[in-house]
């Protein structure tokens, strides 16, 4: 059996350090917004190369709260990828703004800057590129478009912690970066967690107020805020994991390279290819084939896990039926939804295991 992702090896590897972090927090008697969160925020900001980091309850609220902090709402438009996980869209509609979907580049999977220009209107307030599968979006082109027009850029870094564009970390290029520490992400907590990275002190301060009932000083409420805090235990666990992130991403790179090496030339199989300027972190290794159903069946039979990221694009979800963007509205996103397949990937995976998976894929499609 080869699972799609096995979370247990990392726990086994880090158990003594995680146990120590657990004991430290439990014995401190302080569990929300304390020293661990503060320390993690400083360490994660330093890692990403930003002046500030604000810990939040999850990645979705990290995206959403940045839009709230910029006072976006009804009448405002936010450009989002047509090809993404639904969280990206949910953050925009949660504040009452309008999603303006833009198709991916022909090579995929990320938003096509050439198509962004055509989608900009006088109401466009923000662009929300997603670094899908750990592959950075074309940030230089996006920032050039946005800066010229005074439009804000918020990066969805949920799948790309540690990735770089021409030497700069994802999350440090736009006006803000939203991160998720859901357990399966490249750096994940043991529960939910999220953060925003930014160089903007005003944005960071507003986020600190918004996450804590709209208050800076206890029981003094400056605005109607929320409860969205990264907790001390999760922050302490993340502090154990952060120093390992680069090495884990390096392992993911080796695994991706091995897949590409073993799968090259397989008939009817599209392989992921990151642009020259990008340093991806391979959250997922996603192939494309019109014979997906057959391939999933063969992998299943061989005891190999695989997943589809994602089978239904946001515009075709029941949740967005009211937008009346039916089938055919975003054909590139729809084609990806019908052909993508994620193969097993994780920093703990052995190269021999990669070879086993690749052999089944090749045999099935040849
Ligand atoms: C996981 C994910 C999110 C949301 O993160 P949560 O912490 O689960 O709320 C947002 N965007 C993308 C692209 C994701 O993969």
Helical region count? 12
**Overall pLDDT metric:** 97
- Fill in the CATH topology of the largest domain: Aspartate Aminotransferase, domain 2
- End-to-end separation: 23 Å
How many individual domains?
Answer: 2
Structural class: alpha/beta
Rg to the nearest angstrom?
Answer: 21 Å
CATH class identity of the largest domain = Alpha Beta
Helix content: 25-40%
Strand fraction equals 5-15%
Structural shape: globular
Which architecture of the largest domain does the CATH hierarchy give at level 2? 3-Layer(aba) Sandwich
Outline the low-pLDDT stretches: none
Key attributes of the depicted protein:
366 residues, alpha/beta, Aspartate Aminotransferase, domain 2, Aspartate Aminotransferase, domain 1, 2 domains, 7-stranded mixed beta sheet, 3-stranded antiparallel beta sheet, 12 helices, 14 strands, 40% helix, binds pyridoxal-5'-phosphate
Provide a compact summary of the structure.
With 366 residues, the chain is α/β, with parallel strands linked by helices.
Account of the 3D structure:
The protein is of the alpha/beta class and 366 residues long. It has two domains: 8-243, Type I PLP-dependent aspartate aminotransferase-like (Major domain) (Aspartate Aminotransferase, domain 2); 244-365, Aspartate Aminotransferase, domain 1. It has helices at residues 8-28, 35-48, 59-69, 86-94, 113-119, 139-149, 201-210, 232-241, 245-263, 292-301, 331-339, 351-365, and strands at 52-56, 77-81, 98-102, 124-127, 152-156, 164-165, 168-169, 176-180, 194-198, 215-217, 220-221, 278-279, 285-288, 340-343. It has a seven-stranded mixed β-sheet, sandwiched between helices. A three-stranded antiparallel β-sheet has the order 7-6-12, with no helix packed on it. Strand 6 (164-165) and strand 7 (168-169) form a beta hairpin. Helix 1 crosses helix 8 (232-241). The two termini are 23 Å apart. The relative contact order is 0.16. Bound molecules: pyridoxal-5'-phosphate. Pyridoxal-5'-phosphate (PLP) binds next to helix 3 and helix 4.
């Amino acid at each position: 059996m080869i699972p799609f992702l096995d979370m247990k090896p990392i726990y086994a590897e880090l158990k003594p350090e995680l146990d120590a972090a657990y004991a430290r927090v439990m014995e401190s008697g302080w569990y929300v917004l304390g020293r661990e969160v503060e320390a993690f925020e400083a360490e994660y900001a330093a890692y990403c190369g930003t002046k500030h980091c604000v810990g939040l309850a999850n990645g979705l609220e990290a995206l959403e709260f940045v839009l709230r902090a910029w006072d976006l709402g009804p009448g405002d438009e936010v450009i989002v990828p047509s090809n993404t996980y639904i969280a990206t869209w949910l953050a925009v509609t949660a504040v009452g703004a309008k999603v303006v979907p833009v198709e991916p580049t022909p090579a995929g999977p990320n938003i096509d800057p050439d198509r962004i220009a055509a989608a900009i209107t006088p109401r466009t307030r923000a662009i929300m590129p997603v670094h899908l599968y750990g592959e950075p979006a074309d940030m230089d082109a996006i920032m050039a478009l946005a800066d010229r027009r005074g439009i804000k850029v918020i990066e969805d870094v949920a799948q790309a912690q540690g990735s770089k564009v021409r030497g700069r970390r994802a999350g440090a290029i736009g006006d803000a970066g939203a991160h998720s520490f859901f357990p399966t992400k490249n750096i994940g907590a043991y529960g939910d967690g999220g953060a925003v990275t930014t160089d903007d002190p005003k944005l960071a301060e507003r986020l600190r107020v918004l996450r804590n009932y709209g208050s800076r000083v206890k029981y003094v409420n400056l605005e109607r805020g929320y409860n969205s805090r990264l907790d001390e235990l999760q922050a302490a666990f993340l502090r154990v994991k952060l120093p390992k992130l680069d090495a884990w991403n390096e392992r993911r790179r080796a695994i991706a390279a091995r897949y590409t090496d073993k799968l090259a030339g397989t008939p009817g199989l599209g392989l992921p290819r990151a642009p020259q300027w990008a340093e991806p972190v391979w959250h997922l290794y996603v192939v494309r084939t019109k014979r997906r159903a057959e391939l999933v069946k063969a992998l299943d039979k061989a005891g190999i896990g695989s997943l589809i990221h994602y089978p239904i694009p946001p515009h075709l979800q029941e949740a967005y039926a009211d937008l009346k963007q039916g089938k055919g509205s975003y054909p590139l996103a729809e084609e990806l939804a019908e052909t993508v397949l994620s193969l097993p990937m994780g920093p703990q995976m052995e190269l021999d295991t990669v070879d086993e998976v690749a052999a089944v894929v090749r045999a099935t499609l040849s």
